[in-house]
Amino acid sequence: MRSKVKISVVKKLSTRELFGDNPPVHATFEESCPRCNVGDAWIVPEDGSCPEGFCPWAYADIHRDITHLRFGGDYPFVKEAGVAVQCCTDGLRPVFFKLERLR
User: What pLDDT shows up at residue 55?
Assistant: First the structure.
């Protein structure tokens, strides 16, 4: 059985929050991710593809956990069944997502 999964943005960190005024590299992009905001949400299509408007780089990072939830998996270290929290791998301005299996 395949379930839909909801992706919600729960936290964004900026380069300044992570490193103060001394980041390990000096970037030429915005200080925090411009692609989403806390509270934004998407539903993963039934075929498991990246939702329209969602960052494809972030989707590649969290796809494994989405697939696990879609096919009924749970995480023993998360008290709530069908839920996970993951983040993209942008080391200078990560975004954290709550993943929820929908019934």
Answer: 96
